[in-house]
Design goal:
It contains 13 helices and 18 strands. The chain is an alpha+beta fold and 390 residues long. Among the domains are: 162 residues, Uridine Diphospho-n-acetylenolpyruvylglucosamine Reductase, domain 3 (2-Layer Sandwich), CATH 3.30.465.10; 95 residues, Beta-grasp domain (Ubiquitin-like (UB roll)), CATH 3.10.20. It is globular.
Length: 390
């Protein structure tokens, strides 16, 4: 599955990113981890003319205590939160919840800011932020703070203005003898919760309702809950339809497996779209006025420097398979669940179907072919092979 056309921007400073959002308005979307956004773009459940990638803006990833708060930069990866001694020892709800978010590969790319700002009631972090009484810091024309209980307006709808970027999450330090927990029921690893609850309890509070509770799939109005159910149904239907079309088109191959022509160019597809979902996600892009720029990128893959010219929407998995012709990396589910597309990106295992090729510019990539070369040169492998053990 291939996203619709868009232009890609990679600002180097927060001010530059804010100027891009101001310039393009509702047709722009911030790209952080991309673990929710890119699958929706691939399924054509969302569509934007411009993606503003904030991954390389310095100073947005940190975990520290300041002024009686735990301050977390919006670009902090979920995996970094999982490894934090500070969170493990002082913030039990976060420590409970983070290992339950998707799977380790998603947590290596996914950010707390993206999880919070996406506005999906099925995500894990919104429940926790509400229970902990968190405050969000947004940068636009000026800095403003938004309490978590005023941030969520509806399905994929938040208090963030189109020209604002969430930059920090502030969680009050827990008082003595307080506690909390997060529990989640899901069908399998990587799924949204069937049911989940976050609870924070403070013994100093006498009134029972001071222990704030939030259930991810039960927040908002009846219309909000119904919208969530319809959105899940749309995702499943779109995935099945793309799968069916791909099978019918060519002897069992997925449409995405057909790959781009030379230089990684991908032609406009006819994947399913939802006009109301596109509107909820920021407005329909004017496709007739959009011409995607080509991006020259350079990556070090399995120790060799390779260059390519790619479209904005080309996925890393297709760069590896169709441009560089390394077919050990596979397209399996194409919805970021199975992990058949796993590669090492700058030393961290990630799913290459949820990373844009242009985002890998300057990165070091190791594919299964590279791992095979490493294994062949190891003393353990050399000792076992003559004995037909491996």
């Amino acid at each position: 599955m291939i996203p619709a056309a868009f232009d890609y921007h990679r600002p180097e400073t927060l001010d530059e990113a804010l100027k891009l959002l101001k310039k393009h308005g509702d047709e722009a979307k911030v790209l952080s981890g991309g673990m929710s956004l890119l699958p929706m773009l691939k399924l054509r459940l969302a569509s934007f003319a411009h993606l503003v990638d904030i991954n390389r803006i310095p100073g947005l990833d940190y975990i520290k205590e300041k002024g009686g708060n735990l301050c977390i930069g919006a670009m902090t990866r979920q995996a970094a939160l999982e490894r934090s001694d500070l969170i493990r020892t002082k913030y039990p709800i976060l420590a409970d919840a983070i290992p339950l978010i998707a799977d380790p590969l998603v947590r290596n790319r996914g950010t707390i800011g993206g999880n919070v700002a996406n506005g999906d009631p099925g995500n894990d972090q919104p429940a926790i932020m509400l229970a902990l009484g968190a405050t969000f810091v947004a940068q636009g024309g000026k800095e403003r703070t938004i309490p978590a209980n005023q941030f969520y307006k509806g399905l994929y709808s938040t208090a963030l203005a189109p020209n604002e970027i969430l930059t920090e999450i502030r969680i009050p330090a827990p008082p003595p003898r307080s506690g909390g927990a997060y529990a989640k029921l899901k069908r399998k690893t990587g799924d949204f919760a069937v049911a989940a609850a976050a609870v924070a309890a403070d013994p100093r509070k006498e009134r029972r309702d001071r222990a704030r509770r939030h259930r991810p799939h039960e927040c908002g109005t009846d219309a909000h809950r119904g919208g969530r159910r319809r959105e899940i149904s749309r995702r499943e239907d779109a995935g099945r339809e793309n799968h069916r079309r791909g099978r019918a088109a060519g002897g069992g191959e997925e449409l995405a497996e057909r790959g781009p022509p030379r230089h990684g160019r991908i032609q406009e597809g006819n994947g399913p779209r939802s006009d109301d979902t596109r509107a909820a996600q920021g407005g329909a892009a004017r496709r007739g006025e959009l011409t995607m720029a080509m991006h020259k990128i350079s990556v070090t893959i399995n120790g060799a420097v390779r260059e390519a010219e790619v479209e904005s929407r080309l996925l890393l998995v297709h760069l590896i398979r169709e441009v560089f012709r390394m077919t050990g990396t596979h397209v399996g589910c194409d919805t970021s669940h199975c992990g058949a597309c796993t590669v090492h990106l700058d030393g961290e295992p990630v799913k290459s179907c949820t990373v844009l090729a242009v985002q890998a510019d300057g990165a070091k990539i190791t594919t299964v072919e590279g791992l095979a070369q490493m294994a062949a040169s190891s003393s353990v492998q050399a000792g076992l092979s003559p004995r037909s053990t491996v």
